[in-house]
């Protein structure tokens, strides 16, 4: 016999699966488009997006780590890949030797601007409610 608690738990599990399904479908679609068009993945794009939205041109790695859900080591690996691709540059902070600064290059800004249009389009296609067809 199902109790109200079982029904409540079942509803939560169903809600979780719905959220998870939407996330996975959307992130996979974004990943495919960004990879095919710009040779970057979702994680790389998210770091470019955070850098583009930063209030100054240069961003400290530790500030980027606060804004990102990634671990410090994962963030460092992604910034390494972006640097090798010429999309960001990293430099030592002159006022704090322990800090590293990251900023978008001109190429990084160009790729970001184009990739953001694609990412937002995929978000719209995947997440906006569909209008009923008549």
Can you describe this structure?
This protein has one domain: Arc Repressor Mutant, subunit A. The mean pLDDT is 90. The protein is built from five helices and three strands. A hairpin with a 7-residue loop joins strand 2 and strand 3 (100-104). With 134 residues, it is mainly alpha-helical. It has helices at 4-38, 42-52, 61-67, 72-84, 106-127; strands spanning 59-60, 88-92, 100-104. It is globular and about 60 Å long.
Instruction: Tell me the span between the first and last alpha carbons.
Output: 42 Å
| Strand and helix order | HHEHHEEH
Indicate the low-confidence ranges by residue numbers.
none
Tell me, rounded to a whole number, the average pLDDT: 90
Summarize the structure.
The protein is mainly alpha-helical.
Secondary structure layout:
Blueprint: H1 4-38, H2 42-52, E1 59-60, H3 61-67, H4 72-84, E2 88-92, E3 100-104, H5 106-127
Features:
mainly alpha, Arc Repressor Mutant, subunit A, 3-stranded antiparallel beta sheet, 5 helices, globular, WH-like_DNA-bd_sf, DNA binding, MarR family transcriptional regulator
